[in-house]
Amino acid sequence: MYEGLELCGHADRRTLTVTRPYDADKDVEKYAAPTGPSALLTLGRVNFAVFHPQDGHQPGVQIDAPAEILKVVIKFRLKVS
After folding, report:
1. Quick one: pLDDT at residue 80?
2. What's the pLDDT at 58?
3. Are residues 3 and 68 in contact, defined by beta-carbon separation less than 8 angstroms?
4. Taking a C-beta distance cutoff of 8 angstroms, is the pair 5, 48 a contact?
5. Domain ranges of the chain
6. What 3-state class would DSSP assign to 2?
7. Distance CA 81, CA 7 (A)
8. Res 39: pLDDT
9. CB–CB of 7/44 below 8 Å?
10. Distance between CA 18 and CA 80 in Å, rounded?
11. Of 40, 50, 58, 68, which sits 20 to 30 A from 13 (CA to CA)?
């Protein structure tokens, strides 16, 4: 997170229900909201999070009111053997 503050829900993908299958062009898969994430991270300036392929995450959850945020997202392609 470079600027701003947001909550990010986190849950094991195996516990989530797919609502929109993986779209390779957008590199995204959508899930139904869990009844409660296994973790709720608060991300602010200079915080960072690392998510692995088995991690479902819900970024961009506002804290008190809508706010502008600026963040850097870096993805690494994993070769699974």
Report:
1. 74
2. 86
3. yes
4. no
5. 1-81
6. coil
7. 34
8. 86
9. no
10. 22
11. 68
Q: Which two tokens mark 57?
A: 């995450």
What is the Cα 9 distance to its own chain's centre? 7
Q: Are 43 and 5 in contact (CB under 8 A)?
A: yes
User: What local confidence, expressed as pLDDT, does residue 25 receive?
Assistant: 93
Task: With CA atoms as reference, report the closest residue to 57 among 73, 79, 77.
Answer: 73
3-state secondary structure of 56: strand
Classify 1 as helix, strand or coil. Answer: coil
> Residue 76 has which token pair?
């690494």
Residue that has been written with the tokens 């991270």 in this structure: 41
